[in-house]
Amino acid sequence: MEKFTKLRGVAAPFNMINIDTDKILPKQFLKTIKRSGLGKHLFTELRYTDDGSENPDFVLNKPSYRDSNIIVAGDNFGCGSSREHAPWALLDYGIKCIISTSFADIFYNNCFKNGILPIVVTKRQLHQLMEDAENGANSVLDIDLVSQEITRPDGEKVYFEIDEFRKHCLINGLDDIGLTMEKEKNIDNFEKRRAAEQPWV
Fold first, then answer.
1. How is the chain split into domains, by residue range?
2. Alpha-carbon span 45 to 47, nearest angstrom
3. Rounded distance, CA 79 to CA 144, Å?
4. Does domain 6-197 have CATH number 3.20.19.10?
5. Cα distances (Å, whole numbers) of residue 46 to 26, 52, 59
6. Are 129 and 150 in contact (CB under 8 A)?
7. Dihedral angle of Cα 121, 124, 128, 133, to the nearest 10 degrees
8. Each residue's pLDDT tens digit, 170-189
9. CB burial class (10 A; 0-12, 13-18, 19+) of residue 45?
10. CA 33 to CA 108: how far, in whole Å?
11. pTM of the model
C-alpha cells in the first residue's frame, strides 16, 4: 500500500448527505476482484447520462475538479452495503482523502485498509471546508497526516483526530498483509521451533 504522509490537492464539493456505496460504485461493477480499472465507473449514475455522455452538472466533470484528489462531503458518507469495491474505485480514480462529519463504519475501516484517509470534522469545520471546495480551481487543501492538520486556502489550520494505530498504518503504507509481514521474523522463528519440537506436524 502506498504511504500517506502529506497530500496537496483540489477538493471537490459533494454537498450531499448519505452518499452510499451503490452511488459510489453501482452493483453491476462488483464482479471483478481486481482493484484497478474501477475508477472509470466511479459515481457512474451521477457522472454519465443515459446515453453514456458526461453529465456536465456533476462536480467531477467540471474543468476545475477533474483532477481532484480530495472530496468534501456531507454526513454519513459511504453508508449502504459493505462493498470494498467502493474505496477501490475511489482510489483508482485518484481520490486519496475524504472529509466529512461522519462515515459508515465499514466504509471507514475499508478506506484505511486501502490507503485512503477519511477525516472526521465538526459541522462548523465542514461548512468552512465546503465553502473552500466550492471555489473551483482555488479550492486547494493541504493535508498533513503527521501533524493531523488540514490547511485551508487562507492559511487557517483545521486539526483532526485519528486513531494512532490507523495513522501508523497509513504513514508506513501497511495494509493487512503488510502488518503480517512486519511479524515475518517472529513467524519464521515459530515455524522453525515447532518443526524442531514437533517434527511429525
1. 6-197
2. 6
3. 26
4. yes
5. 11, 11, 9
6. yes
7. 50
8. 999 987 655 555 555 666 66
9. middle
10. 20
11. 0.87
